[in-house]
Amino acid sequence: MAYTTRAVSNEGLIAGLVRSGILTESAVKEAMLAVDRGLFSADGQAAYEDAPHSIGQGQTISAPHMHCYALQWCWRHNKDARAILDVGAGSGYLVAALSRLYPNSHVLGIEIVPELVAKARQNLNQFDDSLLASGKVDLVVGNGWKSLNERKFDIIHVGAAAETVPQELVSAMSPGGIMIIPVGRQNENQEILVIRKDAHGKVHQDSMMGVRYVPLVKERQ
Ligand code: SAH
Q1: Other C-beta atoms within 10 Å of 33: how many?
Q2: Which candidate, 203, 169, 201, 200, places its Cα nearest to that of 183?
Q3: What averages of pLDDT result for each successive group of 10 residues across the chain (221 residues)?
């Protein structure tokens, strides 16, 4: 991808995102500097390249520029989110970054592959062992289509592509809330949508860019 940087440290990676004009929000920069991506990827120094990397189980940690865009869309929309959901939490990176960006929030990460949840818990504890212990962050094995139990969220981030926008997740947005979600079939054009729900519950959506994400599965195979 055109944005690829060859940094060998988290600071270098963030500096590259700033240089390329992608990272412009200082609060997001602080959060990304605080969360060392190397703790969330098994790829050693390659973790600091602006590219997706394997996290096992056929899944990937998204590229840093995608994490950066997602965090900035959230931040520009809402600087005081309290209830945050990350569906398809994978490595746990974004759970950690969202928790740093929104220190007064609770972040719930849902991930369908139990082995990845176990690893993401280790990653999060290495990063900051008070996050899970204090209950500021929860990471659960579950299916993002149906584990929500009527809860409402100010921010929903979805880390895997659904063929169409899941209405279950739109219902889980609080008034004034925002959802970042990649949509589209595998191996076809996918786009990342920013969906906003206004105070009256009316939903607006914008397509931000073409993307390639692993599928948001309905059931674990
Ligand atoms: N933001 C994560 C993305 C990981 S890849 C990161 O950067 O590390 C997307 C993840 O979504 C995969 O780990 C996959 O197992 C998970 N996933 C797919 N369908 C799911 C579903 N229905 N519910 C919860 N997690 C799901």
Answers
A1: 14
A2: 169
A3: 68 96 98 96 84 89 96 97 98 98 98 97 98 98 87 97 95 97 94 97 97 89 68
The ligand 1 atom nearest the CA atom of 67: 7
Answer yes or no: are the C-beta atoms of 104 and 80 closer than 8 Å: yes
162 Cβ neighbours under 8 A, 6+ residues apart: 181, 182, 183, 215, 216
| Token couple for 104 | 């007064």
* Atom 10 of ligand 1, residue of closest alpha carbon: 88
Residue 14 CA neighbour count, 13 Å, CB half: 18
Question: Is the distance from the beta carbon of residue 165 to the nearest atom of ligand 1 less than 6 Å?
Answer: no
Calpha distance 29→169 (Å, rounded): 28
Catalytic residue list contains 62: yes
Q: What H or E segment, with its residue span, contains residue 64?
A: helix 64-77
The residues pairing with 54 across neighbouring beta strands, listed in sequence order, are 60
Q: Is 93 in the pocket of ligand 1 (CB under 6 A)?
A: yes
Query: pLDDT tens for residues 74-111?
Result: 999 999 999 999 999 999 999 999 999 999 999 999 99
What gap in Å lies between CA 210 and CA 48, rounded to an integer?
A: 23
